[in-house]
Each structure stands twice: as C-alpha cells, then as structure tokens.
From TrEMBL:
Native source organism of the sequence: Isobaculum melis
Catalytic site positions: H79 (tele-phosphohistidine intermediate)
Cofactor: Mg(2+)
A Pfam match: PTS_IIA
Residues annotated to bind Mg(2+): D82
Cofactor, free-text remark: Binds 1 Mg(2+) ion per trimer.
GO process annotations (BP): phosphoenolpyruvate-dependent sugar phosphotransferase system
Native organism taxonomy: Bacteria, Bacillati, Bacillota, Bacilli, Lactobacillales
Phosphohistidine: residues bearing it: H79
Annotated keywords: Magnesium, Metal-binding, Phosphotransferase system, Sugar transport, Transferase, Transport
Protein name, as recorded: PTS system, cellobiose-specific IIA component
GO molecular function: metal ion binding; transferase activity
InterPro entries: PTS_IIA_lac/cel, PTS_IIA_lac/cel_sf
Length: 109
C-alpha cells in the first residue's frame, strides 16, 4: 500500500510541474506581445513538457490503483489533479490563441 507521505510527494510534484507549465504559458504570451514568435513557441514546448511530467506522476498513481494497490485518499492529490487539468485546458486554449496571434501579426505586416 502506498503511504500518505508518498502520495503527498507525488501531489506536490504534480502541482509544481503544472504550475511551472502555467508560468511558461504566461511568459509565452508576453513574448507574443513583443512579436517574439520563436521564443513564444519554445515556451509552449516547455509548457507541454512540464504538463507531460505532471501527467506522468498522476499516471503512476492511477496504474497502481488499477493494479489493485490500495491508494489512500488525499485531498492534496485531488487538488493536484484539478490544478493539472485546469492548466491542461489553458494549454489547449493557448495553442489556439498562439496560432491566431501569429496569423493576425502576419496579416498586419
């Protein structure tokens, strides 16, 4: 059985990586405002990598439970999942907005 300390560590890692992904997205928007499209794209890649890492931590817990291991309930883990899903939704919207910003910038030139 996974102990409470282990699930807290996983939850904190998820929150950390998801939060860093949000920071990368916000930095990407700042770069877009200054027409630094390549740097903004790099921030999107960074955000995707960080979200993938957060998702990997969640997947480890889900796989353990699916294999029959008892996982203790943790409000912090629920919060971590919520945080990750919220930022993942923000990432999906950001991909679309980044494309739109670049398209508008080309049309304005």
């Amino acid at each position: 059985m996974m102990d409470k300390d282990e699930i807290v560590q996983v939850a904190m890692a998820m929150i950390l990586h998801a939060g860093d992904a949000r920071t990368a997205l916000m930095e990407g928007y700042d770069l877009l405002e200054n027409d630094q499209f390549e740097a903004a794209d790099a921030k999107m890649v960074e955000a995707q990598d960080l979200l993938n890492q957060a998702h990997g931590y969640q997947t480890k817990i889900v796989q353990k439970e699916a294999a029959g291991e008892e996982i203790p309930y943790s409000p912090l883990f629920s919060h971590a999942q919520d945080t990750m899903m919220t930022i993942q939704a923000q990432f999906i919207l950001s991909k679309k907005l980044f494309r739109m910003f670049k398209k508008i910038a080309k049309e304005v030139e």
